[in-house]
Structure formats: C-alpha cells, structure tokens
Model the fold of this input.
Amino acid sequence: MKNFTFIIAAFLLCAANVFGFSEGEDYIKLTNPIPNADKTLIKVFSYDCPFCYKYDKSVTPTVVKQLEGVLTFKPFHLKTKGKYGKEASELFAALIVKDSGDGIAPTDEKSAFKKAKMAYYAAYHDKKERWDGGAESFTAFGLQSVGMSKSEFEKLKNTQDTKELVSQWEASYEIAKIQGVPAFVVNGKYLIYTKSITSIENMTSLIKELADK
Done:
C-alpha cells in the first residue's frame, strides 16, 4: 500500500511538471525590456523569414486564440531584415493603424495587415518573387493585396499613429540579435527560446506562466 501511494504521488508530481519551465532554458529576462508592453504577447517577425511564415500559418493564430482575455497580441516587424524591410514596416504599420480604427485585430481574417502579410509571405517564399522593380513595386504589391490606393497609403503612413508604431518597432532589432526571428516576448520582458518549444500546448502554457510573473 505504501509503495502504491508512493507511485501515485510520483505520478502526480511528474504530471504537475510536464511543462516545468525554467529561466535560461525556456526563456530569458530581457536586460532592456520593451516599454509600454505590459499584458502583451509581441511577435517580432520579417516578411522574408521562412520560419515566421511557418509559425503564422498554423502556430501563431492558435496560440493567440488560446490567450484571448489574457494577453493582447502585437506584431513587430523587423525592418533590418529583407531587402525591403523598411518599406514593409511602413506598410504593415499603416495597415495595423487602419485595422485598429476599424476595430479589427491583427489576427482577424478581415485584417488588412494579415492579408498583406500573408500575401508577401506566399509571394516571397512560395513563388520566389523578389520585386526586381524596386521598392515601389514591392509596396504596390502589398497595396494591391488589400485594395488600397497609393494616396490612401501615403496619408496613413504620415499619420502620427503610424510613425509612433514604426518607432516602437525599433526595439525589434535588439530582440532579434539574441536568437533571430520569429521572436516571442511576453509582457515586454520575457523572451521565449523558440528552440525549447515542443508543441502549441507547451508554448501556450509557458506564455501563460510568464504572463503572471
């Protein structure tokens, strides 16, 4: 009977530690936290990152859905990666501002930001498009994917909200230097080691644990 009790206790202990996370192995605390990021899950990404594309096709939407009411999802585009990183950041920021004004989240199927992002991913990674026509052709492609005119984009791009968002994304560079992209940051201060992620359930559990720190 004592042995049986011991076995049950050991089993329960193991079950409780299935997702036993530790600093230095599963995540790190950033030396320079991202300001004004409490209660958020930030994803640093680049349109030319194949792993960002893979995450955004299946992992990110599921994780964000499971975190509804816990954290607010915020995408941060890394402008220093990709030939047209600067142009992509300006366009993505403008579209997020537009979505926000329309009451649409960046993971919503109706999101202009999401439509443009997925269009760029597919064109760059699946069709090997490189926009040899230059920055103007790159931006035109994104605008066409969401049915936005150049004049409307220029107006949005020059708003204070868009400029502030692009400025916030400058923090992406220091984050990406640590382990590359995609990079997930909880509450602006805990960076998840993507190499330690074994499943969506594992990732969601870690994020929820860090959200309470």
In short: The chain has a mean pLDDT of 92. The domain at 18-211 is CATH 3.40.30.10 (Glutaredoxin). The CA atoms of residues 6 and 12 lie 10 Å apart. The longest helix spans residues 50-66.
